[in-house]
Amino acid sequence: MSRFVLRLLGLSLLCAVSLPCASADSPAAAKTPTPKELLERSKPEEWRKPDPENLLLMQLPQGRVMIELAPDFTPLHAANIRTLVREHYFDGLAVIRVQDNFVSQWGDPEDDDKGDKSKLRSLGKAKRTLPSEYTRPIDSKLPWTALPDGDVYAPEVGFSEGFPAARDKASGQEWLTHCYGMVGVARDVGPETGSGSSLYAVIGQAPRGLDRNLAIAGRVLQGMEYLSGLPRGTGPLGFYEKPAQRLTIQSIRLVADLPAAERGKLEVLRTDSATFAALIEAKRNRRDDFYKLPAGKIDLCSINIPVRGP
Amino acid sequence: MSRFVLRLLGLSLLCAVSLPCASADSPAAAKTPTPKELLERSKPEEWRKPDPENLLLMQLPQGRVMIELAPDFTPLHAANIRTLVREHYFDGLAVIRVQDNFVSQWGDPEDDDKGDKSKLRSLGKAKRTLPSEYTRPIDSKLPWTALPDGDVYAPEVGFSEGFPAARDKASGQEWLTHCYGMVGVARDVGPETGSGSSLYAVIGQAPRGLDRNLAIAGRVLQGMEYLSGLPRGTGPLGFYEKPAQRLTIQSIRLVADLPAAERGKLEVLRTDSATFAALIEAKRNRRDDFYKLPAGKIDLCSINIPVRGP
What we know:
2 copies of one chain form a homodimer. Chain A is an alpha+beta fold. Chain A has 7 helices and 17 strands. In chain A, 49% of the residues are buried. Chains A, B: This is peptidylprolyl isomerase.
């Protein structure tokens, strides 16, 4: 059968043809609603528009990456990243490292271990180090979408303010988790040596051992494929060995600083919405013509938070 | 600091400079032994040479991918894949799909849903469908390396015969798990419609909901970066939309069929060895100058099984 006919036959057949099917339509006889069906039924008020002061547009040669900062978890880092962006610090820097099943990292290729961060030092207002911001006190007034199936690493996991997170009621603390697409703050050896001037995105199995050892600045909302679908670096830790292998960052801008016409209309499904709860439940107990044995369980980092709009 | 100097300073400094550090040397003051230190102390008998009858060499334009079949879990699939390979079925086929945070899949671009698998049909001996082989009875005579920290999906997880696996003593069954790098059998809607003629490798967060819904044929031992570091397909489910985007498979061969000089000397650390247990423990409780807060836990799919040799 030609690709043309295959496409004509549509998604549900394509799914039947070329399994496994992760997130697409199921055949008509599906018993569990599909993500598409659930999202079509969602209400406008279940979606939120990220604050443009928290939204970064990273322009790479292949396309754009949208990142939402998490200032309620890491406020000092969010503020410093905004400052760096407004000073055009990232423009012309590069993706310098892609380590398979771990992270893609970007920053200044000329950084070193002595604090001789030439470009960073030349800037006026951005801080070169920050307090660690690994955890924050649990705020019982904020919505918390708890997951029912437990977690290997933390006493409790779920979603807070749109991000995957973990909690420990004994300590009264909560923290963001290193799930796929989360954006962390690279640092030197000491816990207070990060600044946001070099960041990484998780591109493999969630390295949850990093939780509470590194600050998390936010999450990739769109364009993750431009960070994950890169050739892996062949140097130690996945660093690119030749400058020509690095991917140049054309620019990073705050959406708040863009002309209104260029800001886009990106929306994120609220993690405290009924539709998000229904999506989790449908994935926990997926049962259709293809999936005969529902897992009945789901782990935190296997849950996608839907994003829509250009 | 130039890249040249950075390299001269060696890996442990590079790690300190450009964190996070997943699997490389830790600084000299490390309290937990590093993977490198543990592997250097390992004994020859802790390593096994995979049976060349179970070892596939997949030649891609960028490099070679070594895959170990798991015939003790999926014997009919292993046998059929060997037959397909010996009939040169895969030669000239392609990686047809790369779905971000899910799978890279290869097979015949001309496959369709009517069983009209033209190339497969033209072959003599390979079967076009197989029984599902999703689970097998627990064999108490085989070594089982149990993990101590639980699992979201299964009553018990660990390693059996070199592969990550899950068990349910209540049913007496065990099964391979969809961890990063595991190779599964694509199929149509019915559970018994797979044959091994189209396979996928996991390239993201372990999609454990697929466990016991799809057969697992084996694991990528080397060259995973050639399957994971590919541009994502832009069609539904990550299929490449244009034939030119597909990556041609030059050939797949059984190592047993190669001349002795070309078979290589690949070795895999035994998952029932003391060194493997020490590696797991060091990762569970990593504590060094960089990691201040050991997780004290590890999940099944975050454990790497070391491979060495060309």
